[in-house]
Write a structure and sequence with these properties.
Length: about 750
């Protein structure tokens, strides 16, 4: 592998092979300034010959006239289109006996402003050459140069300090002789070599092994140096150790591939500023390409306030200007994607895909087609919202009838049967289960409200669920509350959330579908319902559920569970409840799942797979950051809301039948009223329930619960999911459309 232990931050480097200068015998050569050789550079010095000649000296110089060789900013070197060249050999007419002298030809651009001092022939060249190697020697980045056959030719002091080797131990060795770290993925070296041997740069995360045997993670960039004839002459490599301040130090195979983008982004602005400053002072007569790059850098830094996506697009635009055509075209496609509004939601395929999936997506993830004129939908079952005065006096938790109490004995188990509780409570499971779960989590103590107030609140909320709905009724709310409480009991979730988050999650689960009409958002938008008009066809039901819950709660002090909490705490709690209820809207399904995976699961996997639980602070920072706590709560309630396929098989079948019946009823009404049929496959005469369940699991459930299981550790749920999927698959293979196989 060529120079894989270090990183190079230059632009593309071009190598010009050294040769005897045609003017080596010119009289001008006698005017060159002589300097002692620099042993610290590690460069060989020619022994004296019969005729004393100066040794060949490798220097770095700017390929294009508008660029300086390097910028020494904050003790960091940035090489800009540097190239290797052999200095011309010349005789020293003044000191023929001196053998350790070096003649350095002019390496600055021809248009570099020359002062009278620099115009003294030879001095400017020598000073520039010394400055370049001083920068290399003083650079805090480890720099390594190898030959085309990967023999080490130069390492700088920073490399020695970081890796623990002395220069003499490495120069002349083949790179394969240097010990390698076992932490890299097996095919990484092959990937690097296949890239750089084609003359392409490689950048990424690489573990190098220090002399003492320790592994060190580095951000590495390797640049092939192309010589005459297009042949690779050298490899230049520079590295930055990532150290402890980079929390991806224990990154996995995924992070090795992904982290280079993050590192480049985090450092892009500083590096580009340095490049821009140099150009402004040294490239007065630059060519068109330089002017375009200058313009690009100016665009990047011109905005004092800009969104992150604007920064990304500006950086890509700048990169396009110096990229080959295939890369530029690929970046055009990237920009197209970035300019779309839904970056986290997958694009649907063609119409010949599974119609069940298409209908589910259309019915659950779209806000509906444009309304047809004259179609006004008023809920047939619409009634005034229930208030406390219409309700019977609630019971105390200690006064719950024995039969109901016995049914709730195992409410902390995932296999708890909510349907049995529904029957035992005469379709009032939410009040009873809510009283027990809220008591277990100390909600009354947190809210500083009497138990009677909580009981009244649960009862009035349940009264505003529609028992006439086959699916979206208070039994579904109780089921989601149960799942929420179960998830809150998982260790990883407890590490992430605060008590206020737990209370918000339980309340949000309780109210998340209150006053649901048994119709989808798409239906309400197509029908021109009052709610759709009120909420502008956007998250219609979810907005209604959240708003009505607070209206009901604050309307009467007897059921106002928020009455006694401090104002700021109430605002925080209210915001969390609303955010969780809105997260149940399916149009944002993939956005929530993908953000959860990228912001939480991947960083945790990177920390755990390579470091176990030793880095507790790093794990804690991922789990408890305010942004990630929001993502955890959203994911929690989403999984609780559509967890039916992960329930025991009998419960899964029961819920599948209920949701299918509700969709059948919607299709019937759409046909009656002449509305667009949102989900045509849910026609009670032709629908295959097994196919619809398979599509729902494939499209919405599997990936989401894989991610949630990776976070919360839910093997029992995943086993149920696998069993249920096989059950539906078996029915479908037998061409059965019903919930259960026919009796034998």
């Amino acid at each position: 592998m060529g120079c894989a232990s270090s990183i190079h931050i230059s632009d593309r480097v071009v190598y010009h092979s050294g040769k005897e200068s045609e003017d080596s015998h010119s009289p001008q050569q006698t005017n060159t300034t002589q300097h002692q050789g620099n042993p610290a550079s590690g460069l060989p010095i020619k022994p004296p010959c019969c005729k004393v000649r100066e040794p060949t000296f490798i220097t770095f110089f700017t390929e294009t006239q508008e660029q300086n060789v390097c910028v020494f900013i904050q003790f960091k070197v940035v090489l800009q289109k540097a190239s290797f060249a052999y200095g011309k050999e010349s005789e020293d007419s003044h000191s023929p006996q001196q053998t350790n002298t070096t003649s350095i030809k002019e390496i600055l651009p021809r248009d570099y402003p020359k002062t009278p001092v620099l115009q003294e022939e030879g001095k400017g060249s020598a000073w520039a050459g010394n400055a370049i190697f001083t920068a290399l020697e003083q650079s805090q980045e480890a720099i390594e140069i190898t030959s085309e056959d990967q023999v080490i030719q130069y390492v700088n002091p920073a490399y020695e300090s970081i890796m623990g080797y002395q220069r003499g131990e490495l120069i002349g060795k083949e790179i394969i002789e240097v010990p390698k770290s076992e932490k890299n993925k097996p095919d990484l070296l092959e990937t690097i070599n296949s890239c750089i041997r084609k003359g392409k740069e490689w950048q990424g995360i690489y573990y190098a092994k220090k002399k003492n045997g320790d592994s060190i993670q580095q951000n590495v960039k390797i640049t092939p140096v192309i010589g005459q004839g297009g042949k690779i002459r050298h490899y230049v490599s520079i590295n930055w150790p990532l150290h402890d301040n980079n929390k991806s130090d224990k990154s996995t195979e995924r992070v090795q591939a992904e982290s280079q983008t993050d590192i480049q982004s985090s450092k892009h602005k500083d590096r580009r500023k340095g490049s821009l400053d140099v150009r402004s002072t040294t490239s007065r007569g630059s060519d068109g390409s330089s002017q375009r790059r200058h313009s690009s850098m100016a665009r990047i830094h011109s905005m004092t306030i800009e969104a992150p996506i604007t920064k990304v697009i500006n950086i890509i635009n700048a990169a396009q200007e110096s990229s080959p055509m295939p890369v530029a075209e690929a970046l055009d496609r990237v920009l197209e994607i970035l300019r779309t509004t839904e970056l986290y939601s997958p694009q649907l395929g063609t119409k010949d895909e599974d119609p069940h999936t298409n209908d589910l997506v259309g019915g659950l993830m779209m806000d509906g087609l444009r309304r047809l004129s004259g179609n006004e939908y008023i809920l047939a079952t619409k009634q005034p919202h229930h208030v406390l005065s219409h309700l019977t006096t609630p019971l105390s938790l200690n006064d719950i009838p024995p039969r109901i109490a016995q049914t709730m004995e195992n409410e902390d188990s995932w296999d708890f049967d909510i349907v049995n509780l529904e029957a035992a409570t005469m379709k009032r499971p939410l009040t009873y289960l809510g009283m027990k779960i809220f008591s277990r989590f100390g909600v009354c103590e947190f809210l500083n409200c009497p138990e009677a107030t909580l009981r009244s609140w649960l009862q009035v909320i349940e009264a505003n669920y529609h028992s006439s709905n086959s699916y979206h009724n208070s039994s579904h709310a109780a089921d989601v509350l149960h799942a929420t409480a179960y998830f809150l009991g998982k260790e990883r979730v407890k590490q992430s959330l605060d008590p206020i988050d737990e209370v918000a999650a339980l309340i949000a689960a309780t109210v998340h579908d209150v006053d649901h009409p048994g119709r989808t958002n798409s239906f309400l938008c197509n029908a021109g319902s009052e709610l759709a008009i009120l909420y502008n066809d956007t998250a219609v039901l979810e907005s209604h559920h959240a708003a009505l819950a607070f209206q009901i709660t604050t309307r009467d002090d007897k059921c106002n569970i928020f009455k006694n909490i401090e104002r700021n705490e109430y605002r925080t709690l209210r915001q969390a409840i609303i955010d969780m209820v809105l997260a149940t809207e399916m149009t944002k399904h993939f956005e929530h799942v993908n953000k959860f995976v990228n912001s939480i699961n991947k960083p945790l996997a990177a920390l755990e797979e390579n470091g176990g639980n030793n880095d507790e602070e790093s794990v804690k920072s991922v789990l408890t950051s305010p942004e990630n706590r929001i993502l955890v709560k959203r994911m929690l309630i989403k999984c609780a809301d559509i967890s039916n396929p992960c329930r025991p098989q009998e419960l899964c079948i029961e819920w599948a039948g209920r949701i299918s019946e509700e969709y059948f009823a919607q299709t019937d009404e759409e046909k009656r009223q002449g509305l667009p049929v949102v989900m045509p496959v849910f026609d009670r005469n032709t629908c295959s329930i097994p196919k619809s369940q398979i599509s729902f699991i494939d499209y919405f459930i599997t990936d989401m619960f894989d991610a949630w299981d990776a976070f919360a550790d839910l093997p029992n749920l995943m086993q149920h999911l696998d069993n249920n999927f096989k059950y539906w698959k078996g029915l479908d293979e037998k061409k059965l459309h019903s919930l259960r196989p026919p009796p034998e």
